[in-house]
Each structure stands twice: as C-alpha cells, then as structure tokens.
Write the structure tokens for this entry.
Amino acid sequence: MAVVKADAYGHGMIKCVEKLEQLGNKKPDYYGVALTEEGIELRKAKITNQPVVTFSPVQASELNDYLKYKIYPSFCSEADFAKLKKHKSNKKLKIHVNIDTGMGRLGIPYQRAVEIIVRLSKIKNIKIDGIYTHFATSDEKDKTFANLQLKRFKDILNELKTGKIASGIVHAANSGAILDMPQSYFDMVRPGISLYGYYPSLETSGSVKLKPVMSLYSSVSTVKQISKGDSVSYGRRFIAKHKTNVVTLPVGYADGISRNLTNKMKVIISNKVYPQIGTVTMDRICVDTGNDKIKTGSKAVLLGKSKNHKIDAWDWSMLINTIPYEITCNISKRVPRVYTGL
Ligand SMILES: Cc1ncc(COP(=O)(O)O)c(C=O)c1O
C-alpha cells in the first residue's frame, strides 16, 4: 500500500500515483489516504483502479462515496457499529479494521479486538477486507515497544485463525518497520515517507537505499551591496559586520520555508553554500553572498544537490526540531511542482 495522503506528503498525489502505476506488476496493490476526499480526488483523476483505504474512521455520511469510489474506510472503535447500521444496501461495504496495539490514537483496543471483530464479521453487508495496526516507535533504535505491539497484534491474528474468522489482508509496517522489522511484513506493507526518499528518523538502519524525491529551487531575483552596520529584513535580526552582497529569492514562509529557519538555513548558488540572513518573510528570503558576484536569475538550491553540495529536509529538520515529513508536507501549493523522470 503506497501511502499518498496529504498530497503524497507534499509531492503531489496525482503525479506520484501516475508514476507508481507505471511500475507494472510491482505497482501498489492499494493506496492509503487519510481522508475520503483524498480518495475521491484520486478516483476522479482516473489513474488507478486499485482500492483506496482511508485511515480515518468510517463516517455514515460517506457510505455512498465508499461504494461509488471503491474507498475502504477504517473501522476504528465500537462507535463505528452505529455508523455501519446506516449502510442498508445489500452491496458489501469493504472495511479495514484498525487495531490499537499501543499507538493510542485510533483503533479498537487490542484487549477486546477479537470479540469486536467477531461481531463485525456477522454483519451481512460488511466485508472485512483487511486488518491492521500502526506502530508508534518502529523508527526508534529500541524496538521493545514496537515488538510488544507486534506481539499483541500476532496474538489477535492467532485467535482469529483459531476461531476461523476471516481477517482479509493483514498489514502493519510503516517505513520504520519496513526498514528494520521484517517480522512485521505480513501480507502488505504501508510505506509513506520512504516512498519519497527519506528515512523516518535518524535511528533506523539504511537497509533500503533511499534518496529524496523532492528538490526545491528558486532563482536570484535581486542583488545589492550593503555596508557595515546595515540591517536586513523585519526586526533587524541581521546586521552586517562588513560590506557584503545580499541577494533575495522570491520564496518565503508562504511557500513552506519556516520562519524558524531565520538566520539558520543555507542556500546553494553556483555550487557554493551561502547563509540565509534576516527574518524569513512571507514571500522572500535574503542570502549573504559575501564578495561573490552573483547574477540575477542564477539558480538557488534550497533543497537538493549541486556538484559538491547537498541540502535535504533533514538539514532543515535539525535546525527547527522537526522531521522531513513536516518539511515536505509544508511546501505549499503556491510552489509549482515540476516533474522530471516521469
Ligand atoms: C496508518 C498509517 N500507515 C502508514 C503510514 C506511513 O508511515 P511512514 O510515512 O512513517 O512510512 C502512516 C503515516 O502516518 C499511517 O498513518
């Protein structure tokens, strides 16, 4: 299952799915989204017939959409029984049952999972297409808790097997588990961040070689020289210690460059790394290019590679205490996506 929610973590769901669909017999069997709307968007693009699972709890108001668009909602709590009662037609509604083995967010409690699934399996117009759980710590070095979650999940599967209760497709592994817990693969795995070329944390192994899919480029829009003591941008958070050149790039926090990166991030221009200076503004950032003569129109690499340098979402993440997931998701709609290699 390719996890393509949140516009494929900011990469563009439609284009990413188009690419994944080109993988022939290696293409995903399922797509994973967070919202029914995302599933509908994918269906309307008419680029895949594979089932779409939404990780959100089943909604009575969306029952028709699930059937019309081949979207399989998640059964996440006993409250969902009442919602399923609203499904009156004879057409089987396929669902995936989320079992909370320790994530503590969504899912039926593992202690009562078997009893709930037995009840569910008796509803005539519902089909359990799959059963899954989600790891809270599979990307941490210490796998104690992830293994406990796995044991709880396996115990349930064994009980279901003994009771001859059909569970459909069994899945658990997110990127962390794909990298380091092969014992959690079952019938299907659910990569998200690793599809886009990032490790989920700095603690996993590199058992699968990944390289970032997304680069972020801008181009130098203005160049000027400033003198010792001159300040740059809101709040005067940069004061020149000597005469220097400042270029601006037409990209700012409205494009997904966190304001917290102010005076911290770096930019590559003409294969050289320069410091970003002064407060990141909504539409523009400033870069100190020292004595170098930079031409307007020069390419600026904010995320990506030049001949000798690279900057990736981990570099930003470490400066502002987040993870690449948030960095790529935050690259806003205003930034044109250009797809190469498709
Ligand atoms: C239920 C579920 N499965 C799989 C994933 C993919 O996780 P990752 O991006 O860490 O691979 C997510 C993402 O949050 C998720 O919510």
Observations:
- The pocket of pyridoxal-5'-phosphate is lined by residues 3, 32, 55, 134, 174-175, 190-194, 200 (CB under 6 Å).
- The CA atoms of residues 271 and 309 lie 7 Å apart.
- The chain has a mean pLDDT of 97.
